[in-house]
């Protein structure tokens, strides 16, 4: 069911997510698997960066959040690849007539070093999001050993997204 949006052709959205680190789990971040001693725990593959991004995109369209569309209580999402969820979210905004303008993400992780993986993540996400790599920015930061990210208990991610109304012809 299509919603009635305001006349403004641009909308922005913000998303934030946290997942706990556990030894021995695979680490999925920004759609790619990264070699590390610990991975993130969740009902899905726990890709915290994709989850923040999905929430930002859904937020831009006032469509709720990922938990509303893909409930963690539903067995069908157990272990699911978050790239599948992102693709579904993109389809939802396309249905409303919107496309991705740009997205900017920050991942807070004490370890591992993410810089060598950032461009692979951007390429992976831009392919799913039907946009160019330069429309996706991903940054990494430590939290200087402070807080739960600093103690390597978890990783957080935040995302901001601009979407625009695409021409109908
Ligand atoms: N997991 C991380 C965290 C940070 N980086 C890169 O290091 C730079 C410095 O980090 P600070 O937290 O000291 O500001 C940061 O700008 C990133 O380029 C990283 O690669 N992986
Ligand atoms: C991705 C979903 C899928 O069930 O589960 P989790 O991996 O637990 O992730 P979270 O960010 O806690 O919640 C969102 C859920 O939609």
Automatic annotation (TrEMBL):
PROSITE patterns: ISPF. Keywords: Isoprene biosynthesis, Lyase, Metal-binding. 4-CDP-2-C-methyl-D-erythritol 2-phosphate binds at residues 17-19, 43-44, 65-67, 141-144, 148, 151. Its cofactor is a divalent metal cation. The keyword Protease does not apply. One of its GO terms (molecular function) is 2-C-methyl-D-erythritol 2,4-cyclodiphosphate synthase activity. CDD domains: MECDP_synthase. HAMAP family: IspF. Homotrimer. This is 2-C-methyl-D-erythritol 2,4-cyclodiphosphate synthase.
């Amino acid at each position: 069911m299509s919603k009635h949006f305001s006349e403004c052709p641009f909308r922005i959205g913000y998303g934030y997510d946290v997942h706990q680190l556990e030894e021995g789990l695979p680490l999925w971040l920004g759609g790619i698997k990264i070699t590390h001693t610990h991975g993130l725990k969740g009902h899905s593959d726990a890709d915290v960066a994709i989850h923040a991004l999905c929430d930002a995109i859904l937020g831009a369209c006032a469509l709720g959040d990922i938990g509303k569309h893909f409930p963690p209580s539903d067995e069908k999402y157990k272990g699911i690849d978050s790239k599948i969820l992102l693709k579904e979210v993109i389809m939802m905004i396309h249905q409303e007539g919107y496309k991705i303008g740009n997205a900017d993400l920050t991942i807070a992780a004490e370890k591992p070093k993410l810089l060598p993986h950032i461009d692979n993540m951007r390429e992976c996400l831009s392919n799913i999001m039907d946009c160019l790599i330069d429309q996706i920015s991903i940054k990494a930061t430590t939290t200087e050993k402070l807080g739960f990210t600093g103690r390597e208990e978890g990783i957080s991610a935040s995302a901001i997204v601009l979407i625009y109304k695409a021409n109908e012809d």
